[in-house]
Specification:
mainly alpha
């Protein structure tokens, strides 16, 4: 015989004689309150905050201070800098060269991000369907591409697009009969220069994005996809209506990371310029900051450009983070 507390909701009859079934909590849904964690979370992240403040915070403060000063090579060797306050920023925002570099950087980064996300999505979908052996082979190949240093990859691709001995020109002339590509100079023209740079950037970025999306695809319920297929939904419809909504936060995070990385690309552009590109026509923000400050010796203007770039990256990051948080709240 089961005893029933009189303060609870009326119990339902059971199949066993004399027994009554009682829902936990009197049949009313119980809401768990958040336990106050106190100071513990802040204590746990304090060491990381201290390290970040020492490694990133102090150099950032120095950069901001330098951007308000007239800081050249003389100041590097000990001469006191002069405070010019916002003059460096005014010079940057009134310089048409800066806007040309900024627009070039945004277009290049946008194209790289778009191509990277499309190829990564297709490769991730292919990894789901490939047999185990082929999937392992493709995974190893992408890991090798991802592990290769950016400078090494740029030199290798630069050799492939070499004017006299590059395999690209050889294949186009001898395999496809395109005689106009004999001794073709890929890096002289800015458009073809950024095409080569984009190939290098995308080639190194696709593995990370593809692996991340593939990990998300393995969590999509198979029975939901099977039910949609039985209802007549095609592959694109299943991706648009089922897969993408499930993976939208992952897509947003990967896209945000790609935007940040591609906006501050330096190694690929700088190395290709050394191989044969025209610097004035192919500078992006990262290379432009280097040439203004390190190569040109004008650390004040270079610091102002760097601060503007950091603010741009922070604005993009905050926007994407807010979008991700909104998705989690839905």
């Amino acid at each position: 015989m089961t005893t029933v507390d009189q303060d609870l909701e009326p119990a339902a009859p059971s199949a066993v004689e004399g027994e009554r079934l009682i829902a936990p909590g009197g049949g009313k849904p119980q809401r768990r309150g958040r336990r106050a964690a106190g100071f513990t979370p802040y204590a746990l992240i304090t060491p990381a905050i201290i390290v970040l403040a020492a490694i990133v915070g102090w150099p950032l403060v120095q950069l901001i201070i330098t951007s308000f000063q007239e800081f050249g090579r003389a100041q590097v060797f000990g001469a006191p800098p002069n405070w010019v306050w916002f003059d460096n920023y005014v010079d940057v925002f009134t310089d048409p060269v800066f806007y040309g570099v900024l627009g070039r950087t945004l277009l290049f980064a946008g194209a790289c991000v778009l191509v990277t996300m499309v190829l990564s999505t297709l490769i991730a979908l292919m990894l789901v369907r490939l047999p185990k052996g082929f999937r392992m082979l493709l995974t190893v190949g992408m890991l090798l591409a991802w592990a290769m240093p950016a400078l090494t990859a740029t030199i290798v691709w630069g050799w492939m697009f070499d004017t006299a001995y590059g395999v690209i020109n050889y294949a186009l002339v001898n395999w496809f009969g395109l005689a106009e590509f004999n001794q073709h100079q890929w890096l002289i023209d800015p458009l073809s220069f950024f095409m080569v740079a984009g190939i290098i950037v995308v080639w190194g970025a696709v593995p990370f994005a593809a692996f991340t999306l593939y990990a998300g695809l393995t969590q999509v319920p198979g029975e939901v996809l099977e039910a949609a297929q039985l209802d007549g939904a095609g592959g694109f419809a299943r991706f648009r209506l089922i897969i993408f909504p499930y993976l939208k936060p992952i897509f947003m995070i990967v896209t945000m990371l790609q935007v940040i990385w591609d906006l501050k690309v330096f190694t690929q552009i700088f190395a290709l310029q050394d191989i044969g590109g025209i610097r004035a026509q192919t500078n992006t923000l990262g290379v432009y900051i280097y040439q203004t400050s390190i190569a040109g010796g004008d650390f004040g203007h270079g610091g102002a450009i760097a601060v503007i770039t950091a603010v741009l990256l922070m604005a993009i990051s905050i926007y994407y983070i807010r979008q991700v948080l909104k998705e989690e709240e839905l």
